[in-house]
């Protein structure tokens, strides 16, 4: 067995362990875990594209709802010297795993990028930092409309003007809930969709469909506009469909 085979086996074992951990946490609380499997490579790449596009400039990046870290692993190699990554994860078991991932990652030693894991909710993150890119893994369609409003307002507050928020939503969840859930649950999901549609109409710069994910998902990029000199309100950015 050569080093390449050993490394490949380690990666497969890691993914299998993460998959089981995700299933266990989903069984504990599907509302906050949001899925039955970690994000796939294609989804992680699209979510992290705004960081990749601005490399090698030093950036301030926030990842919210990192889970077991599949998107974190895609983010860290894109961090240039002088960059900062704040990872927010409320689940204590996921947060502990993320700290281990950060401690052991060789890229951070080479670049001296600053990475911190915060076990908290993004609405409660105590920071004066503003971010160039926010990557959200939070299951927004699982929350109440009031929670989604608070989360999205916090994201926009934390972004630099001109900064980008990326997030994903699974395909078909509203139709599935309409067929299988209670009327109250279906109304909750529809209300959240309306909130997000308003943000998409106002701030979206792109939407992509990721079929190679379990389950398939949309990825959205939203940009906080720059404030024009003669206006007190940001200019809206029209979405590309």
UniProtKB/TrEMBL annotation:
InterPro entries named in the record: Methyltransf_25, SAM-dependent_MTases_sf
Domain of life: Bacteria
Gene Ontology terms describing biological process: methylation
Pfam family, one: Methyltransf_25
Keywords assigned: Methyltransferase, Transferase
Molecular function terms from GO: methyltransferase activity
Sequence ranges assigned to domain Methyltransferase in this UniProt record: 61-163
Name the record gives this protein: Class I SAM-dependent methyltransferase
